[in-house]
Amino acid sequence: MANSLTRFWGQGSLQKHVVQTGLRGFSSQQNPEVEEEEEFRVLSLRTVKQQFQKRREVKKDPVTPPRSNRMAVDQDWTAAWPGPRSFHPASVPLPLRQGFTERGAAAPSKFANAELMKIPNFLHLTPPAIRQQCEALKKFCTPWPKGLETEAKWQRHFPVEVITTDYLQALPTIRNPEARRVTVSLKLSDLKFDAHARDKFLRLVGDRYDKDTDILTFVTDRCPLRKQNYDYALYLLTACYHESFVTEPWEATKSEADMEVYLFGRNKSKLSAEEILNWNAAEGAPKVEPSPSYGQSVEQLINEGENEYNLTKYKEEVKKMLNIASQ
Amino acid sequence: MKMIRNRLAVQLQRHVLQMSMSTNAAAAAAPAEGAAISEFRTAVTNPGEHSALQVAKFYTIPAEQKKQIFAGGGLPKQYEQQIKTFTEACLMVRNPALEVLEYIKKADLSKPVVRYLLYGENGTGKTLTMAHVLHYGALNDFLLVHVPWAPNWMKRPKEASNAAGQEGMIDLPFDAAAWLVHFKGQNSKLLQRLELKTSKEYVWSKRESTPAGSTLLELVEHGIARIKYASETTAALISELKLLSTAGKCKVMVAIDGYNAFFHPVTRIFSDNKQRVTPDKITLTHPFLNITRYDWTNGVCILSVDKIAMTEGHMDSYMPRYLLGTEGFEHLDPFVPIHVENYSDKEFHSYISYYLDRHWINKTPQGFEEQLKFMSNKNPYALMQLVRAL
Amino acid sequence: MSFLTRIVGKSTSFSGIRLMSVYPQHYVEPIVQKDKQIEQKDELTKLHHIPIKAALNKSSDTVFHDDTKEKLLNYITKKGNSALARTLLSKAFELIKRTQTERLNLAKGDKDKVITNAEVLLKQAVENCRPLLQVTAIKRGGVTYQVPVPITTKRSYFLAMKWLLEAAREKERKVSLPEKLAWEILDAAHGQGRVVKRKDDLHRQCEANRAYAHYRWS
Q1: Residue B188 has what pLDDT?
Q2: What one GO molecular function would you report for this record (chain B) (predicted)?
């Protein structure tokens, strides 16, 4: 207030009156001073230095040297940095540098460095800190079950993996709609199928099966509660599994054109090969079957598509079957 | 002016001399007729005696044998031209042919017929491989059932008419008769010697019939004379051949070039209702499909599948199953696929030597062989095209 | 004849220097052919500090390249379709070679006389067809005279090839160009045929009109 007042004094007399009235309006403290001045008005054409009031010096505390200077080399770091906190240069006794400079110059040091403060740090999660916390938590834990020491073991005993997520959030409600989502996954090789059932199962689950990793995944979120979704996922798995073993009567009418893969056993190739092998065989003599490797080579040729490798293999098998002299 | 002329003439002569010297130098290895045989030739003219020793060497087919076997086709047109230009019918002994020959020589003829299928890129020599094997067959008392280029029937038949007996079938009388002529030309000597008889009576019409016990030659001649019945005669002839060879009275070699044409989705022949017919609607297809089945003995089948036997849109791959289609593959399976590849380095060099010997390549600057090798990728047909203007 | 020689002597004095060339005169021609480079290795070392012209776009060192052939190709080409021209010419060459090779293989003895190299034959044909003079119409005193004038070497080659091609194009519709061209080249190479006759006719006309020769300059 005092400052503003002096500034007003410096200006022309025209405005003074207005200022005075204005001052009167809201500041009764100043009244005696004003009245004092009215007693003897000195004409001052120039501003005189004495009229200025000395600006009050802002007292600054002396900058203390950074705490890190005083830190012992073998101090307990978990005490110095106990929890998550954004970076503080004086507390971290590391010569860190971060940020962009012109070419050739050193990166800015850690003091007053916003770059370092912006990025998340994990200084509270040092191995000793974690070890300490684990030690503290240990008394609440049960021992690790026997027989599940390795990953292979626990995967054998618990093939189904269930993933749910809990959310902590700053909302009026503690419920997050995403929390109800349940993901159930397992390896398909853990389920036992025959050829038909496997084919049907894969058709039933559609793109929930990943061929590359052999993992089947159900994600359920249609029910409001997590429990319901979990039950539903397990129900889906069970239902699909058992349904895949059901053979419908119309499946018997599947013709060659409907086949997804070529099967040697149900094609003319097998008949031809059999007839050739049993040419002029005596009545009632045991039937000679074409070798399975020949069947495989035909299947490979047709299912994998033609290439020199498959064709050469087919040729070798044919030569073996027909007893043709090899070169 | 005379002086200038003279100078020019001298220059020219020198040039010509240089050229002829270079060709002579290249052909120096090739001696005059009657002298020691050159490196790229072999004196073994019997394909039965060819072995790995003769690989990449040329053997000459005697003129009268060439006339007997290939008079009605069987060599590519450009190769025929080359034979005429070089005044000798030379074939290179190559691995695929040797492979087939070895199989045939060691084959147990009492077993069902084995089908050998030649396949390979365009212009690698499938037809010539077949020609080599045919030569062997002709010399070893095989009756030749040879179709020089099956797609001709599907793509450019001489005449198409409705078949008399069968509903919805198409006859190719002229082509069938031409094939009978070809058959007769190839086999007349052998047929006369073997005296093969028909097993049953064939009734062509009310008045015409071929009685049981008449010779096959009579049957063939009837077909040639009565073109209308040529297709039926072909069918009869082929079923007779199957019976006779199964009975052990003769050996049969079937060679069909462009065999995949029989399984092509469509032909260029139109039926009465202006629709393209499929190959199985053509009467001529069936006898040749019949003889490539495995249900007879005492014979061999050499077939070839070719990209250019197909039409646009069906020529993506040279692999046998693609070209034969599902149906054709089922018909042939199990067959022995034989890959006819581009020239090996040795074969390529041998061919270049042959061209030089025949004065077909006249420019021999340094590294010309490398250039040709690079440009042609050692593909026989491409090489033939490249050297034609050299 | 002496008259013709005299004029030819003059015609050869036309210098080959192109005044409007991009290259200054001290630039030397490049040698594209590898075998020639190897052949002239010693001479080429002298050229270390002499600038060399860039090789032409069309120049090449393959077996398939020949300068006369390339020139003829340019004349055959219609509407820029040089791919077609190339196939036509190579077909013509093939035919020439077929005829000659067959002749060679059937010949009894004296085989060296038959030339099977189509390029050599083409060169021979072009040489045989080259005119030395041509006539040009010059008007003096209201009368047009056909005056014999000398021609440059380059033009003589051009005329020879042009005539060969014209003769080949003058044919029945059923005969293909390669076929006719092959005949003409073979004929001309042996000093016979219509093109050689055409050249001789021109020469005869020049000889007959020798009296008008002075109209060239007066």
Answers
A1: 84
A2: structural constituent of ribosome
Question: Tokens 């149906």 identify what position?
Answer: B327
* CA nearest neighbour of B3 among C120, C6, C15, C210: C6
Q: What are phi and psi of B237, to 5 degrees?
A: -60, -45
Distance from CA of A275 to the nearest CA of B (A): 9
Q: Do B360 and C34 touch (CB under 8 A)?
A: no
Across chain A, what does the average pLDDT equal? 83
The interaxial angle of helices B320-332 and A268-277, nearest 10 deg, is 60
**Contact (CB<8Å) B114/A327:** no
Share in percent of chain C as helix, strand, coil (round to 5)? 60, 10, 35
pLDDT at position B151 over 50: yes
- Spell out the CATH class of A151-250: alpha beta
Q: Are B123 and B376 in contact (CB under 8 A)?
A: no
Average the pLDDT over A248-254 and give the result: 86
Nearest in space to C64 (alpha carbons), one of B377, B351, B363, B19: B363
Q: pTM of the full predicted structure? A: 0.70
Would you say residue A33 has pLDDT above 70? Answer: no
Domain ranges of chain A: 2-51, 78-143, 151-250, 259-322
B176: tokens are 């069938």
**Contact between residue C212 and residue C206 where contact means Cβ atoms under 8 Å apart:** no
What residues does B297 pair with on adjacent strands? B112
DSSP per residue, A43-104: --SS--GGGSPPPPPPP-PPPPPPGGGG--TT--HHHHS-S-----GGG--S--B-S--STT
Task: Name the residue of chain B whose CA is nearest to C1's CA.
Answer: B1
Give the single-character DSSP code of B388.
Answer: T
Question: Which of the four pLDDT bands, split at 50, 70 and 90, describes residue B1?
Answer: very low
Distance of alpha carbon A18 from alpha carbon B376, whole angstroms: 107
What's A191-212 look like in SS3?
CCCCHHHHHHHHHHHHHHEECC
* Interval A180-238: pLDDT, tens: 999 999 999 989 999 889 989 999 999 999 999 999 999 999 999 999 999 999 999 99
DSSP string of B179-212?
HHHHHHHHHHHHHHHHT-B-SS-EE-SSS-EE-T
Spatial CA neighbour of B310 closest among B256, B257, B264? B264
Contacts of C101 in chain B (CB under 8 A): 85-86, 358-360
Q: How far apart are CA A290 and CA C202, in angstroms?
A: 85
A80 contacts A130 by C-beta, under 8 angstroms: no
Question: C127–B8: do the CB atoms touch at under 8 Å?
Answer: yes
For each of the domains in chain C, give its residue range(s) and CATH number, in order of start. 66-216 (1.10.455.10)
ipTM summary value: 0.80
Tell me the CATH class for B95-339.
alpha beta
pLDDT digit string, tens, across residues C72-86: 999 999 999 999 999
Separation between Cα atoms, residue B129 and residue B340, nearest integer Å? 8
Domain map (residue ranges) of chain B: 1-28+344-390, 95-339
Interval C100-155: pLDDT, tens: 888 887 777 777 777 888 888 899 899 999 998 888 888 888 888 888 888 999 89
**B389 contact residues in C (CB cutoff 8 A):** 64, 89-91, 93-94, 97, 118
